[in-house]
């Protein structure tokens, strides 16, 4: 991605980065695809991919049109970015009940939920902790046994 990010008034930035992504992806496919799918290569691109094999809602006859029908989106917005788990970064994560606002609880794989790795289980744990923080705030007591009905 191009850095530094342009101001929000640059409404062409997303489209420009999408186009750059498309071009880079095309090059990457033609340089590397045969390593993954050796039977998908072509005579012209022995390391690449036969675009005729790509799914296309319009079922275009032309292979490049099939490539163009793929979904390309560059994650350029700051909120699209991944929160990494690099050493000594955990202290910058906030707990579910530590937003600093009385009526705002945090959840997501980016908070301090304990494991502090960006994965689905962490997302779920963070959601449970946010729910618990909300219950505590509302004097609703401890965790509700969400699986009890299934165990009975
Ligand atoms: C390429 C990739 C592969 C992955 N593979 C795995 C895997 O194999 N196993 C695994 O466990 N995890 C995997 N993960 C991680 C997993 O996807 C995330 O941990 C999980 O999706 C995080 O969930 P979340 O709800 O915290 O955030 P998100 O899923 O990112 O949801 C946040 C949502 O908030 C929206 N949003 C942002 N800003 C605003 C705003 N201002 N207003 C309204 N909405 C907003 C976003 O559009 C988004 O929909 C992978 C992640 C990536 C990127």
3D architecture notes:
The protein is mainly α. The chain has 2 domains: 13-68, no CATH class; 83-151, no CATH class. It has 4 helices and no strands. The longest helix has 24 residues, at 13-36. The mean pLDDT is 91. It binds flavin-adenine dinucleotide. Flavin-adenine dinucleotide binds at residues 79, 82, 108-109, 118-120, 123. It comes from Dyadobacter frigoris.
From the alpha carbons, calculate the radius of gyration and give it in angstroms: 23 Å
What structural category characterises the helix and strand content? mainly alpha
Provide the residue-averaged pLDDT: 91
Query: Could you tell me which ligands this complex binds, including any ions or cofactors?
Result: flavin-adenine dinucleotide
| Helix and strand run | HHHH
Strand fraction equals under 5%
Ends distance = 53 Å
Give the number of helices: 4
Shape estimate: elongated
Helix content: 25-40%
Major beta sheet summary: none
**Tally of distinct domains:** 2
* Low-confidence residue ranges: none
Number of strands: 0
Organism: Dyadobacter frigoris
Protein name: FAD-dependent oxidoreductase
């Amino acid at each position: 991605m191009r850095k530094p990010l342009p101001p929000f008034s640059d409404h062409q930035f997303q489209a420009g980065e999408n186009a750059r992504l498309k071009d880079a992806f095309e090059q990457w496919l033609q340089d590397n695809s045969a390593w993954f799918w050796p039977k998908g290569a072509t005579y012209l691109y022995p390391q690449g991919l036969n675009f005729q094999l790509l799914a296309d809602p319009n079922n275009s006859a032309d292979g490049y049109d099939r490539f163009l029908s793929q979904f390309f989106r560059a994650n350029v917005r700051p909120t699209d970015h991944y929160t990494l788990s690099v050493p000594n970064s955990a202290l910058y994560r906030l707990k579910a009940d530590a937003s600093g606002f009385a009526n705002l609880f945090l959840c997501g794989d980016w908070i301090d939920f304990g494991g502090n790795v960006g994965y689905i289980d962490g997302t779920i744990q963070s959601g449970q902790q946010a729910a618990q923080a909300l219950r505590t705030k509302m004097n609703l007591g401890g965790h509700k046994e969400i699986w009890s009905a299934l165990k009975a």
